[in-house]
Request: fold
Amino acid sequence: MKILAVGKNYSAHIKEMHSERPDDPVIFFKPETAVLRNNAPFYYPEFSNDIHYEVEILLRISKTGKYIDEKFAHNYFDAIGIGIDFTARDIQWKAKEKGLPWALSKGFDGSAPISKFIDKSKFDDIKNLGFSLLLDGELRQQGNTSNMLFSFEEIIAYISKFVLLKKGDIIYTGTPEGVGPVKPGNKLEAFIEDEKILEVEIR
Ligand code: MG
Reply:
C-alpha cells in the first residue's frame, strides 16, 4: 500500500501559506509507516516544535491503473475517508528556504491518521462534499470538495502518468484553509458532512 498526497489544492490555503497556485497538482508521498488507524493517538515527535494539522478528504484506489484517462478515473476509486496530513512545519520551512526537499516533514511515522472508508455510493455528490475539523471542540477547518483546484479525476489521471496505482492505495486530496499547530493534550475530530469519522488525541 502506498500513500500519495496533493499539496496546494485549495486556493485559500495556498494564500495562507504565501504560496502560488500550481500549474499541475503538487504530489508527495507518505510511507506506510506514517499510517495511524482506528483513532490511534499521535505522539508528538522530538524533532519538531511546530506540528500542524491539515484535514483532507481521502480516496481509496480500487483497482490497478496506469495512464488512467480522466474520463474513466471515477472507476478507479470506490471509497472516501478523511485523514490528517500532519506536517512538521518548522522542518518544512527550513527545507523550503534552502530549496531542499521536505519529504521528512510530511512522511514521518504517525503523520497520516486515516479514518474508516465509506463507499462513495453512500454520498449524494462527492464533488460537493463538506468536511471539517475540530480542535478541542472548536471549529478550525471547514472545506468543501467543490473548491478543489484539481478534481479527484484530474488527480488520479495525473498521478497515474508517473506512478502505477494499485488497489488499496490512498490519496490525500489537499487541505482547505485554517491549518495550525497542535500540542500534547489536544484532541482533533474530523467530520464528513455531519458524521464524525476520525478522532486523534495528541500525546
Ligand atoms: Mg496536506
Notes: Residues 3-201 form a domain with the Fumarylacetoacetate hydrolase; domain 2 fold (CATH 3.90.850.10). The chain has a mean pLDDT of 96. The helical segments are 11-16, 89-97, 103-107, 152-162. The longest strand covers residues 77-84.
